[in-house]
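Quick one: C-alpha cells for this chain, please?
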Amino acid sequence: MRRRPPVRRALTAVLVTALLGAATACTTGGGDAPAGPEPAPATTYRPGTLRVLASSELSDMQGVLDQAEQRTGVKVRPTWTGTLDAAELIASGKADGAYDAVWLSSNDYLRLDPGAARRITNETPVMSSPVALGVRTETVRRLGWQPDEVTWSQVHQAVVAGKLTYGMTDPVRSNSGFSALISVASGLSGAQSALTDADVRRASGKLKEFFTGQKLTSGSSGWLATAYTRRDSVDALVNYESVLLSMNRDSRTGLTVIRPKDGVVTADYPFTLLTSATQEAREAGQALTSYLRSPEAQKSLTEQTFRRPVIPSIAPAAGLATDKRRELPFPGSRSVADGLLHAYENQLRRPSRTVYVLDTSGSMEGERLSRLKDALAGLTGTDDSATGERFRDREEVTLMPFGSEVKRVLSHTVDPAGRAAALDAIRADARALTASGDTAVYSSLREAYSHLGKGGPGSDAFTSIVLMTDGENTTGTKAVEFDSFYAGLPADQRATPVFPILFGDSDRAELEHIAQLTGGRLFDATGGEESLDGAFEEIRGYQ
C-alpha cells in the first residue's frame, strides 16, 4: 500500500545512518518509546543480539526482555516504529540485512502486501490484547450502560446523541487506530465476515456520525493517554485493552474498560523472523520466543503489561475479563484496507485546522530555509497522492512565517473540488519564503492562537500549532508573558497543542516548556539531512 507513514523518510534516514554505523535521531515528549537516541541496527548480525523492528508500544516489555536476556543470553536491540511503517520498510526490501526480526502488534497488514509477506517467516504469537473502549466511570453511569452488554451500535448512538466523546490514535499511522477503525466499521456495517468495499460504503453514513465524537487524535498511544488526562471534557478512549488498564494503574484515571459485545480486533504480537536473517539469528530468535512463551515469561508479561498470555495454563492478570468476545477478521484485501483509510482521512474524520509558525529570521538564510521549503512542499504531495501523502481534504493550512514579527498569514483550505489548486498555492507560498529579522517566537505563537480563535471553514475541527525555529526567542513577547496569555485563553483554545520542532540552534528547554505548557510534544529534527522532513511528517498523526 502506498502511503506516507509519519516517519517514512525518517526510517529511510535511519537505515542509511545505520549503514554508516551512526545513531538515529529521535522524538521526545510523551511518545510510546523511551526518550533518547535509539541504537541504529548494526550492518551485520552480532551473536547474541537480535536487531528487531518493533512496535513502539512494546517499549513496556523491557522488564520481560531483561529477564529473557538473563535466561537465554539473547539481547533484543529494538528500533521503534509503527506497524504500518514497518510493513512498508519490509516490503521495500530495505529491512533485509539491517534487521533480523520484526515484532509488531499484528502481521495482518504485512500479509496484504506480497512483497512483505514473502520476507517474513516463523511467526510466533507471544501475547494478545483486544481493541477496547475505556470510558470514565461517571459517564458509564450517566449512560446507564452495562459494560458487558455494550455494542458498537450503542456507542454510535451515544455519540449521535451528543452524550459521548472520545480520543483515538490516527489509523493511518498507528495500528491501534487502524484496528479500532476496522472494529467500528465491522460493528456498524453488520459485516458477518471480513470487511468488503460494499460494507464500508454501507456504513459510511454511520461512520461519519461516529467520528464526530472524536475529540482527540494522536500518532501514538502514549501521547494520547497524556492528552486525555488533561482534557476533562473527553469521555473515553479507543485503544488496546492493555493500554487502558495500564492507564488505570499508572494514573488512576478510573476508566471502565469495555470490549464491545459485537466484536473487536485483537493484536497477537507475533515475534517474526525475516527470511534474510542468518541461521545464527534464527536460532537466537527461536530461543527467545521459547522463553517468551514459558510460564515464567507469560506470567511476567501479563502482570507487567496487562496483555493476555497465549499459554492457557497462565491466568490473565487481575482486571482482565475472561469472557469471550467475537474476533473480527482483518480485511482480506489491500483495496478494502486502502479504501477504509482513504475514507477516514478525507471524508469521515473531523477536518483539521493547523497553523505552521515558521521561523524565517535572518539565521535561516541558506540551507536551513531551503530544507524548510522542501519539507513543506513535501506535505503538499500531488493531486493523486496516496493516503497520508499530502494535506487532507477539507484541511485548513495556515503558514505564518515570522522574524521580528509575523510577516504574513497565508491560509488555504484543501477543497476536494479544487484540491490541486489549493496544494499548488500552499507549495508556492512555501517556495516564496525569505529570511530576515530577529526571532519573535512568543509573539508569533500569540498570533497563531488569535488566528485559530477566529474560527474558520472547519470550526468543529482538530486544531494545532506547529512551531519550527532554529534559535531562541530574541524579541517581542517574553516567555512569562506568553505563559500568562495562554493561562487566560478560553478552555477550548487552551486545548490547542503546540508541537515545536527542535532544529538548528533552537533552545531545547524553551521548546520543551512550550510543549508541556500547551499539551503538545517536542519533535527533534537535529539528527540529519532528512530529519526535518521526518518531523513534519510525524506530526501529521497528531493533527
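Confidence is low (pLDDT under 50) at residues 1-39.
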